[in-house]
Amino acid sequence: MMTRKPEGKEILITGETFGIGEAIAKIYVKEGCKVALHDIDEPCLKRVAGGMFNQGFDVISLVVNIRSYCMFIKQTSVNNSYDVYLCSLSR
Question: InterPro entries, alphabetically (predicted)?
Fold first, then answer.
């Protein structure tokens, strides 16, 4: 359990559609964070992001290859910077 609440922070998570990345994304949204999800696997990304969105969480997603990483950050961050970056490559 987190001792310091990350509520309101912007979190960027790459490769979050399986395993540890998905679990961490779910923890952050439940703690009140704005979460940006990024994965190359569109069906899995839709499953994870859609599930969080349907529960009322603040989440955005984009299908992107790591080669387009800079473009992703510019398009998804409110102020072009995140509080936490998490790279979780599960495959």
Answer: SDR_fam
